[in-house]
User: Which sequence fits this backbone?
């Protein structure tokens, strides 16, 4: 096959690939992201939100536009979709809507359900306060408000404003209205009207309209040789010619050998070497490379080459090499692999049934295919873990016993430290088995030995718990009248905003459980009890001293978020003498350990600006910048604009001021428009 490819062209392609890899070495690593997502989602399920949050942030460090990463952070901030209010939730929703204008995150059914519940929650809140102000016919919502309504699925309320802006040629609104007509949202489905609006949106600068139309035409099965398809294909600017449809779907060796020019494809060895080299960057190649790779994959796939069929199936599944995602083709190719006795594909088919891509979502079918892969020893490092996860999440009730069984198999076959952590959790809380703290300690220790240093905290806690209760061979005993730890967490998550509005009976039961588990050094309960003493929750008499001592205990147990809370005691003089330097010291510790909250940097800046006899503008500027970098905080953007405009703590710089005001405006603070206009006038003068 050496005659199939010009060696000089291969060298050029390899050099180009090398340069590309060097430029992209700090960009997203898809396989690593997928692996981290599995771990983070698992941590969320067992309510280890601290661990999950760190992993989701790690994902966003790799790819700052990763939609699943932001969904994960919202899941963490909402404590597994049980809370609806909070700055962390609002902030990440705002970012998510900014990077995902197509609202593709709604494909995540669990997240979409949370958004609907969140909408209902706020509706009920509004009903309990003041009646909703009705919009007058001649008035329209701001663009920000329209987006907020769309985010909360209030399409009916948003429609008049969307139509108004679309008539006035606001590109994003024209594109949004087009999608409504295309999908039949609120309005009657009208394809010709939708295409007309997409054309208008495209002319107004919404160039990705072409991609949305192409996806629709592909799903509809429109001929790629039709004038409509060619017209929209040309608008993408990516492809200038359309492949003619194949006359025969069979994989005839005779016919395919005549279709391809030998000089236009790789040899099989050259293809394998090249794909190995770009394994993490299959969606980042040039059009020339994409075309050549796809021709080669199709050529050898038609010759029943397993390697090429597998790569082509993955390309259709993930959209590699410029392909539009096509789950149907991917599913058919993976099925073909099974027919050719490549049983690794059982894992891939299982994922289709697990996620509901192309086929109807069917957890039982997914388990069946994963199990086939396991029985044939064609499983990968996630097969057993995936089966356990399905038993935990994909049925009406979690099947802890089955999940426990498959986590054990995962540790036996794959040396899976995460499965060790799960087994420790199951034995500690008695999920699917009898509670056994010694067995829990064994699995936590195994996870630690296998390289998960985060298990050190669990090992330490279990050892201390066993020593404290002196029950090395028995379950801990407690009064049956109080909540179990899981019941307590579930209950508190449902009353997150109403901890001071419960009945005396409930208050008594909650406080008994919090004190019981706090005595056993449970971090969650110590934290809740500290807040209860601080704010008087559950009709507990406020006691700043006890709250302070409990937060100090949290720090000793390695829960460094408590630094943030201790700082507030020194900032406001609760229990301890007011000491602004001490407050800054504790806030800074929280920041350095990346255990700060949304307000930590801003609080330090505000102390330097407002709480000393003379404002320290340079220090305030420094911490507002840190707040802007870490929290994408619009208030800090506004402050930085003001500092640069007025020369506070820094040399006056109107261009820099304009940059920060603009950043605040882009991040959602429309009040910055006035500042932007003022600074632009000054610059023009």
Assistant:
């Amino acid at each position: 096959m050496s005659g199939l490819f010009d060696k000089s062209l291969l060298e050029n392609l390899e050099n180009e690939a090398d340069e590309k890899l060097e430029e992209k070495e700090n960009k997203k690593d898809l396989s690593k992201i997928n692996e981290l997502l599995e771990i983070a989602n698992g941590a969320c399920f067992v309510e280890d939100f601290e661990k999950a949050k760190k992993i989701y942030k790690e994902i966003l460090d790799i790819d700052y536009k990763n939609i699943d990463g932001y969904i994960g952070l919202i899941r963490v901030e909402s404590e597994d979709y049980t809370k609806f209010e909070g700055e962390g939730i609002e902030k990440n929703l705002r970012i998510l809507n900014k990077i995902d204008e197509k609202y593709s995150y709604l494909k995540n059914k669990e997240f979409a359900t949370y958004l609907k519940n969140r909408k209902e929650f706020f509706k009920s809140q509004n009903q309990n306060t003041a009646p909703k102000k009705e919009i007058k016919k001649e008035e329209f919502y701001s663009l920000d408000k329209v987006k907020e309504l769309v985010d909360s699925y209030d399409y009916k309320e948003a429609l008049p404003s969307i139509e108004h802006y679309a008539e006035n040629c606001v590109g994003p609104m024209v594109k949004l209205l087009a999608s409504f007509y295309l999908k039949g949202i609120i309005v009657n489905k009208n394809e010709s009207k939708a295409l007309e609006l997409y054309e208008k949106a495209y002319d107004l600068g919404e160039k990705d309209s072409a991609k949305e139309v192409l996806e629709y035409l592909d799903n509809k099965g429109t001929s790629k040789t039709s004038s409509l398809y060619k017209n929209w294909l040309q608008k993408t600017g990516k492809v200038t010619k359309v492949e003619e449809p194949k006359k025969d779907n069979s994989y005839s060796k005779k016919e395919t050998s005549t279709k391809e020019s030998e000089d236009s494809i790789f040899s099989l060895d050259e293809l394998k070497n090249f794909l190995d080299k770009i394994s993490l960057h299959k969606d980042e190649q040039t059009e020339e490379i994409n075309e050549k790779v796809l021709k080669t994959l199709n050529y050898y796939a038609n010759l029943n080459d397993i390697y090429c069929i597998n790569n082509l199936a993955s390309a259709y599944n993930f959209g590699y090499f410029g392909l539009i995602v096509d789950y149907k083709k991917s599913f058919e190719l993976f099925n073909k692999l099974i027919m050719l006795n490549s049983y690794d594909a059982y894992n891939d088919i299982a994922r289709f049934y697990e996620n509901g891509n192309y086929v109807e979502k069917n957890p039982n079918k997914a388990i069946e295919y994963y199990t086939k892969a396991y029985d044939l020893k064609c499983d990968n490092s996630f097969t057993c873990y995936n089966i356990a996860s399905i038993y935990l999440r994909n049925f009406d009730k979690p099947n802890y016993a089955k999940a426990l069984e498959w986590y054990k198999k995962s540790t036996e076959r794959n040396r899976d430290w995460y499965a060790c952590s799960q087994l420790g959790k199951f034995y500690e809380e008695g999920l699917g088995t009898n509670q056994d703290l010694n067995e829990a300690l064994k699995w936590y220790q195994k996870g630690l030995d296998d390289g998960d240093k985060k298990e050190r905290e669990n090992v330490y806690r279990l050892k201390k718990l066993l020593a404290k209760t002196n029950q090395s061979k028995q379950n801990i005993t407690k009064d049956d009248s109080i909540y179990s730890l899981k019941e307590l967490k579930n209950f508190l998550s449902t009353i997150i905003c109403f901890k001071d509005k419960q009945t005396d009976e409930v208050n008594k039961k909650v406080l008994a459980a919090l004190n019981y588990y706090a005595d056993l050094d449970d971090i969650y309960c110590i934290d809740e009890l500290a807040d209860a003493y601080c704010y008087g929750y559950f009709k507990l008499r406020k006691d700043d001293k006890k709250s302070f001592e409990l937060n100090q205990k949290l720090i000793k147990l390695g829960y460094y978020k408590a630094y943030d809370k201790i700082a507030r005691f020194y900032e406001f003089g609760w229990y301890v003498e007011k000491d602004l330097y001490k407050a800054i010291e504790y806030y800074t510790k929280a920041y350095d350990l990346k255990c700060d909250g949304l307000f930590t940097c801003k609080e330090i800046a505000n102390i330097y600006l407002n709480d000393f006899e003379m404002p320290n503008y340079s220090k305030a500027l420094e911490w507002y910048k840190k707040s802007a970098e870490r929290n994408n905080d619009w208030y800090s953007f506004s402050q930085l604009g003001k500092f640069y405009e007025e020369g506070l703590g820094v040399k006056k710089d109107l261009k820099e001021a304009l940059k920060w005001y603009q950043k605040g405006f882009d991040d959602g603070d429309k009040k910055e428009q006035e500042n932007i206009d003022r600074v632009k006038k000054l610059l023009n003068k």
Observations:
- The chain has four domains: 30-194, 256-469, 478-559, 598-685.
- Residues 478-559 form one domain.
